[in-house]
Amino acid sequence: xxxxxxxxxxxxxxxxxxxxxxxxxxxxxxxxxxxxxxxxxxxxxxxxxxxxxxxxxxxxxxxxxxxxxxxxxxxxxxxxxxxxxxxxxxxxxxxxxxxxxxxxxxxxxxxxxxxxxxxxxxxxxxxxxxxxxxxxxxxxxxxxxxxxxxxxxxxxxxxxxxxxxxxxxxxxxxxxxxxxxxxxxxxxxxxxxxxxxxxxxxxxxxxxxxxxxxxxxxxxxxxxxxxxxxxxxxxxxxxxxxxxxxxxxxxxxxxxxxxxxxxxxxxxxxxxxxxxxxxxxxxxxxxxxxxxxxxxxxxxxxxxxxxxxxxxxxxxxxxxxxxxxxxxxxxxxxxxxxxxxxxxxxxxxxxxxx
Length: 354
Description:
- Mean pLDDT is 92; it is low at 6-15.
- The chain is 68% helix and 0% strand.
- The protein has helices at residues 3-16, 19-35, 42-53, 56-59, 67-75, 81-94, 100-108, 114-125, 131-142, 149-162, 167-175, 183-197, 202-214, 220-231, 238-254, 259-272, 288-300, 307-315, 332-353.
- The protein is mostly helical.
- The protein is elongated.
């Protein structure tokens, strides 16, 4: 056989090689490298890991066709856990929607290794897939009982961005760490609350309201739940709206020392309260941003009875400690400008009434 014919034969053979075969060969190489790590020191293990990770270069040209066989390798519990972890990493590096189903399978499989599932959650978050599809997978994970903490944390990172209509699962997660969580537990609670704020449906609204009642006043968890409710203010109708209004009125008193909460309370009262009775006392709030937000809400409502308090605040701003610069707070001059604009709008509204 001539050299040209042999080259043509080899090229045809390579072209005919299936994606399954290419992936199997790469995974077998990873298997062999992982096996060499036994009894090695950290430097040698790092070098072997780099060689294992480099096997992706042979898979990258396959694109979406590598997803299914990589998924099979990731779920194969006869393989070493580290090999399966590399398979999950390779799936994420494909950056192709075809990796969504295999990664979801790994993430949802309670029999899989915890680190493998956490890696699948990370990889899935980086895929360009419809939000509804990703939300479905992460919500299903959140609904699982006795979920490993590493998997829960990764799922909550995405749920905080995507939301989840299963409010009961998110409420259960938020309550699991007690009324005064801290550290890593607090992070989980804040993400669960954020997820509820990006969810839909009456059930998730009821969960937000339940959490506001559960967490003590003045704390970050309750502030996060109030922020979630404010984000959902356009969804509040009927009975949930009445309950949310009662909650906002109560929070206007109990959260008066928390500017972040009070700003959200202003939004809720502006959207839900047909009277100005709860907004008017906020003109005396100790925070200039809350004062400015309340003034703007009152101006939109043409609540001219707020004018005396607002005019007094404008006139005394130079000596008002609320308008002193504070670390991490908005520029006082901008807040004063907002207050002046709202006050002027109310003056005009009063003039039209006469």
